[in-house]
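Q: Sequence in, structure out?
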Amino acid sequence: MQRLRDADIDWPSEPDTVKEATAELGADLPQSLASLVDPDGLPADVPGVRIRRGRWWAEPGEASPRFQPGFTD
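A: Exactly. Output:
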């Protein structure tokens, strides 16, 4: 809640209060964290890579082993 208060947000012009926004973020934490990622910006510094289409999501729980370093199929 304090970080939302400290953010450069014009709260009187927002539809939610700080308390409501905090509750909304906490209600779906995986989605809240996923919204922090800029999918188009991730490969921005990789030469020859261009995002054409994709789908991004977040799920609660343990990470899949196939997304861990050193995984081979």
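Residues 12 and 18 are 10 Å apart (CA to CA).
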